[in-house]
Amino acid sequence: MATHFKIDGLKAAIEGKEILKGINLEIKGGEVHAIMGPNGTGKSTLASALMGHPKYEVTEGHVELDGEALLEMGVDERARAGLFLAMQYPSEITGVTNSDFLRSAINARREEGKEISLIKFIRLMEGKMKELEMNTEFMHRYLNEGFSGGEKKRNEILQMMMLDPKIVVLDEIDSGLDIDALRIVSNGVNAMRSEDRGFLIITHYQRLLNYIKPDFVHVMMQGRIVKSGGPELAERLENEGYDWVKEELGIVDETVGQV
Amino acid sequence: MSTQLTTPVNRQSVSALSQSKGEPAWLEGVRTKGAELAETLEWPTPEKVRISRWNLTAVGSHKAQAAIASVDELPEALRGLAGQSPAGLVVQRNSARVLHQLTPELAAKGVIFTDLETAAREHGDLVQQYLFQAIPQDENKLTALQSAIWSGGIFLYVPKNVEVELPLQALFYSDDAEATFAPRVLLVADSHSSVTYVDNVVSTYGESAQPITKQSIVEVIVKPGAHVRYATVHNMHDNLIDLTIRRAVVENDGRIEWIIGDLHDGHTLSDTQSLLKGNGSTSDAKVISIGSKTQQMSLTTGAVHFGRNTESDMVTRAVMKDGATAIINGITKIEKGATKSNGQQTEKVLMLSPKARGDANPILLIDEDDVKAGHAASVGQVNPEQIYYLMSRGIAKKDAERLIIYGFLAPVVTEIPIEPVREQLQRLLERKLEG
């Protein structure tokens, strides 16, 4: 069955303050959607609410992944159902090696007794690390500990490649990346584009979209998607900024309740 | 069943026991002096743990034990703890040594490795020369009482320039809570020698054994240029109170490494200290502990810098479950004149339950200006952001917590240089964490 992801009237709050004010979005397998917008408009909240971050409370709405009600699942169940979020600020975890972590994640998707063999796992991980031009020594490093910003982002993409998700949300994967790293990360994402996988790319720079060509572009302001279009919308935003969108829609302050 | 919860220890009782065992007169003198000192001295008073409230008087009575011919005669659960073909092995059951092995090669080199009682008879001069050199007999009630009642134990002497490559191993086990369990360890590494010593301290009681207090004293003498690695893993039932004081005196350019697994289930006083007397002497201490149920623990590591260019590093990591309490002290003292010395310490406690309690107290006492000293201490719970991150990759909450808890201990466990000790610790960690 082709992947089908549908967000319907999603509202979410943090500490009682409503940030998402009704998000509607549909992503089919093979499509790449980009959500753009200035800082503080709720983009990252959308990513966190979809994944189920404990600080965000979903107050209304419905999200379906291939017919399953995503919001009724725990964080780990969402991941196993096929959702992947490449995080803007991945946690550092001392004492847990990158390889132990990823092996646990892969085995969590398998039945007991059918765990991936160590040799197969190492081969898979080494192969993907080479694609991302990562030093294979990072396998044995503690998860994200002492990684540079760019190394953390690559490590997120590595996880995506290893876990083979159906819906990928990239939350500001481009922030803090130099041009080389941006190219490598984008190549990794492009290599994963396929008919049965959908992407939601959150960014506020058009630059990333030169490398990963979106099919749809959405602009987020005040906790809502206020404008949608094709790749040409991203180009216009890059050239002209967001003021014309605000003017067109009569928006004075595009942010939403975040400090 | 006779339940004798308080065992009287006095001059007459220790003297009679010493004579009945045919001990040399000097040792009988030591014991009677210890019994007398114990009557007036006070129990040690570690920070925030009132050990005097524990039942410390149930020290049991001396019981003889039949010797065994080999490791195969040990209870099955203990066989794995005797080390894989160690260079030397001493097994103590309750109050007495039951097995002793040492390779002829080491014996020919002059290495002495036996129980301290035998050594007191056969190498009395050596033993008397070093006994109480690290831990004075009259320091407190514990050191005095232990000097009166100890039995079995270990004496290790490594002559000058002798390098013992394989670990020397000891196993102390208690299977009778009415029998005294008070091993005393004396290690002497003569100039430029090196040795690794590993012991396991365990109990194998049935379901409900009566209370017993185990008193242990460990003294290590590291002569110039010598290197001693001391690893110990404690894992006993909760009816047993474990009081252990370890101290090393390190001379010029000597090195002591402590590896301590306090995985005992009952109340614990564990105090490990290095006295860096010689210039250029160094000390490294790694302590791993898990507290569970209602046990109280006082875990102290200490380093006292006397010599110039001395270095100490101390790391303690403890995981506290259920209603367990741990007071963890790191005491770095740098004396006047110990120039260019460097003392570092880290204590970290991970709390798994709202009822658990953990305190980390780094204490730096510096009387010299030209030194480096550092400390880091933290007490915290499992970070919910980390749990979220792991779960977002499909890992179930329980497994995510497990990864983080083991990860908390891993940086210390993986640094343990003796593989069988590392594996044994890992097994016990799992048992105590999952239990």
Characterise the protein shown here.
- The complex is a heterodimer of chains A (259) and B (435).
- Chain A is an alpha/beta fold and 259 residues long.
- Helix content of chain A is 35%, strand content 29%.
- Chain A has helices at 43-51, 75-81, 98-107, 118-131, 149-163, 179-192, 207-211, 231-240, 243-249, and strands at 4-14, 17-28, 32-36, 56-65, 68-69, 83-86, 93-97, 142-143, 167-171, 198-203, 216-221, 224-229.
- A six-stranded mixed β-sheet of chain A has the order 6-9-10-3-11-12, sandwiched between helices. A four-stranded antiparallel β-sheet of chain A has the order 2-1-4-5.
- The longest helix of chain A is centred in the middle third of the chain and has 15 residues, at 149-163.
- Chain A is globular, with a radius of gyration of 18 Å.
- Chain B folds into two domains: 11-278, no CATH class; 383-435, no CATH class.
- Helix content of chain B is 23%, strand content 37%.
- In chain B, α2 (25-40) runs antiparallel to α7, α5 (116-122) packs across α6 (124-130) and α8 (384-391) crosses α9 (397-413).
- The longest helix of chain B has 17 residues, at 397-413.
- Chain B is globular, with a radius of gyration of 21 Å.
- The two termini of chain B are 30 Å apart.
- Classes of the chains: A alpha/beta (259), B alpha/beta (435).
- Chain A binds chain B through residues 51-54, 74-76, 78-80, 85, 87, 90-91, 93-96, 100-102, 104-105, 108-109, 142, 159, 163, and chain B through 383-386, 388-397, 399-400, 403-404, 406-411.
- Chain B: It comes from Paenibacillus sacheonensis.
